[in-house]
Amino acid sequence: MAQEKNTNRIKGRGATGNPKNRFKELEYDFDTGDNERPATKFYRDASSSIITYNESPDVGFDASINPYRGCEHGCAYCYARPTHEYLGFSAGLDFETRIMVKENAPELLRNELASKSYTPQVLAMSGVTDPYQPIERHIELTRRCLQVLAKCRNPVALITKNHLITRDVDVLLELASYQAAKVHLSISTLDNSLRSFLEPRTSHTDKRLEAIRTLNDSGIPVGVLVAPVIPGLTDHEIPQILQEAASAGAKFAGYIVLRLPFNLKKQFEEWLETNIPNRKEKVLNRIRQMRDGDLNETEFGTRMKGNGKFADQIADLFRLGIQKSKLNQESFPLSTKEFIRPSINGQIHLFHQDAE
Questions:
Q1: Cis-peptide into 277, omega within 30 deg
Q2: What is the C-alpha separation between 253 and 202, in angstroms, rounded?
Q3: C or N terminus of the chain, fewer CB within 10 Å?
Q4: Is 263 helix (H, G, I), strand (E, B) or coil?
Q5: Exposed, middle or buried by CB within 10 Å (0-12, 13-18, 19+), for 2?
Q6: Distance between CA atoms of 332 and 322, rounded to whole angstroms?
Q7: What pLDDT, in 10s, does the model give residues 262-316?
Q8: What is the pTM of this model?
């Protein structure tokens, strides 16, 4: 896809600025200078727990682990951006340049798995932000959390946009031997020109497809998540994404339509105006037609897929793509049968459970 060159873009970043925090009266301008790359800063997160629980019926998991808050990948559309406002930051550049790091995440995880109140269950990694964002290469929080899960044989489902996950094939393979690992590589577009300013610090699409191939060849259940589908911009790519992923070894697939909660609506409008102004109105109008006239929807059941004729078209496109690429023909259920509970004194004991 040929794109207009826009000098107002901030190099290496998805956000176009630092909008006001909806919880605070004060705001400040993020001065990047001429073509300057805003530096990323990392802060210690003093959280006393690591497993987060939710009761949302349409997210696919009840509990998740997030070693980081904020994400340097800088995806312009990220639905998690507004969560940074609870920390006193902005959902814009702050979200991708002010990263909270849970340095003791592996220790917290082990302690929570050891608790008698913990019920063995599938834990998702990337429920909010990507567990394989760039800083992970250096501090290995995600890897060390996976090592805890492997020792306890607790099942985990991961979603990432980063080829870095292949570094952890050894741990994932150990988990897979207990029917306790499943991976989705998230791909929103095959157009690396678009990806470069839509998801500026993610792995190139060909590297994600390479990651699918590596994981599959290693015996780790892997699939593709077409997410987010941006109506009027990337929806036409669904069949090709599914076919490319299947050719690389993906066995299953899913999709999620773009979500724009809170002030992410305005941010995404500004991103469209800055990067692809000629498509702005088409994209926004398509979103509104799928969201009952608004740019977001909060109703369970439809917020992930949208509704109306364009939502139906996307669903049909996905269904036909699945049939053609022969994805989702077998299931890969995760099991807690092999769970081993660690004890506070460093020993472990088996947790006997009959049901998966």
A1: no
A2: 20
A3: C
A4: coil
A5: exposed
A6: 16
A7: 999 999 999 999 999 999 999 999 999 999 999 999 999 899 999 999 999 999 9
A8: 0.88
Direct distance between the N- and C-terminal alpha carbons of the chain, in angstroms, rounded to an integer: 46
Q: What angle do CA 242, 12, 199 make, to 5 degrees?
A: 20
pLDDT at 167: 98
CA distance 261 to 52: 20
pLDDT, tens digit, 9 for 90 and up, residues 42-77: 999 999 999 999 988 888 889 999 999 999 999 999
- B/e letters for 61-88, b = 16+ CB within 10 Å, e = fewer, are bbbbbbbbbbbbbbbbbbbbbbbbbebe
As given in the structure block, the two tokens for residue 212 are 């699918």
Locate 119 and state its tokens.
Answer: 């019920």
The size of the chain, in residues, is 356
Answer yes or no: are the C-beta atoms of 93 and 30 closer than 8 Å.
yes
Q: How far apart are CA 39 and CA 96, in angstroms?
A: 10
